[in-house]
Amino acid sequence: MTIAKEVTPYDSTPGAPEVPYYTPQQPIPAGTFIESNDDPNAPAPAIFTPLKIGPMTIQNRIGVSPMCQYSADNFHATRFHEIHYGAMVTRGPGITIVEATAVSREGVLSPHDLGIWTDLHAESLKPIVDYAHSQGQKIAVQLGHGGRKANGQPIFLHLEQYADESVGGLPPKDIVAPSAIPYRPYGNLVTPRELSTKDIHRIIADFGSAAKRAVEISGFDALEIHGAHGYLITEFLSPVSNKRTDEYGGSFENRVRFLSEIIDAIKSQIDTSRIPLFVRFSAVENSVDPEGWDIEDSKKLADILIEKGISLIDVSSGGNDYRQKSRAELSKSQREPMHVPFARELKKHVGDKIVVACVGQLEDKPEIDNKYIEDGVFDLALVGRGFLREPGLVWQFADKLNVRVAQSLQYSWGFWPNRKQITDLIERSERELAKEKEQQN
């Protein structure tokens, strides 16, 4: 049954045009700063100030990090995903990044992960995007390929167990990597087949086609390239996993070629003056191998990404070498969240040339996250587990920082803002937008 979307005569609030059902059109995005509880004239804390990421501006600096949910049906998004992401975007993160979504069939992380190598896959993601837009929120998707770590079991079943054909996986011969080196010798993941140059070019083209679908069919506002955690792009970047002797292996320049050509393929398919590109990468490999990727490599990569017009780097670490230090050990030795030191070094290196996001253990102390942003350690805090535990984490951060932020109309009736504050915020937003356009001209 189709429910009419037209507004009834007694309802003065128009419906959001992005969805085929009634939900009130939001005057301002949830998560927008209103005022401090202590001083109505005080400025917003740094974490609740807007952030410009290339052509896009978000209302605060708290984002939902991509997190695999292992709930796809034949690699399509389901109603579970609509509910899962809807619960978070309604409550106002600056941006939500949908979980790792495979650009090729052999690149899925498990038989229950999302894919986007067909139009039907992209169409299954569209209701999630449309709902986010109906709430005035920005949403991105992470595009990736698992390489030698593809076709594993969902993590709640086994951390490193190959998913064979009996559970919907692929035969071992279809698992590919830059070199035929297993992730863990004598482990439960298979030894991959070394990619031919022809297959490399095919996967590069797959990234471009996936990006086009994500924008033109699904409608995402931004795209993130997954170059971290030991998946295919990381495998090309690191000399630990890349032993090739052709143009895609050996020197630093050759090892970054795969990622560079993926960016070119995506830029040939979408309008990057309208859709910003992000790249997540492991800033350090945490490996005992002296050849392992380190922070100096990441600085050189960041320079390349700036030249290629990437709008944001998403700083993580590890995942490519089974001999790496544990995350708990890393955090303990650093006495701060595990990726903060790497984000700090990269931000110091790149300055304001590119937005720097940091992920990992940022969910519990918003006052410390705010100080990091205030001090220029990084620009955007990406949180994963915190949003799983509390979809209203942005609201919780605001309460802990003793400030008021806008909520969706459905939730704001018992809280803030009131109607006058909404009007004032709209007028303020319009003034700021006009000023920004004037400066651009």
Automatic annotation (TrEMBL):
Keywords: Flavoprotein, FMN, NADP, Oxidoreductase. Residues 1-22 are annotated as: Disordered. It comes from Lodderomyces elongisporus (strain ATCC 11503 / CBS 2605 / JCM 1781 / NBRC 1676 / NRRL YB-4239). One of its GO terms (molecular function) is FMN binding. Coiled coil: none annotated. This is NADH:flavin oxidoreductase/NADH oxidase N-terminal domain-containing protein. Its cofactor is FMN. Pfam families: Oxidored_FMN. SUPFAM superfamilies: FMN-linked oxidoreductases. CDD domains: OYE_YqiM_FMN. Residues 47-401 form the NADH:flavin oxidoreductase/NADH oxidase N-terminal domain. InterPro entries: Aldolase_TIM (IPR013785), OxRdtase_FMN_N (IPR001155), YqjM-like (IPR044152).
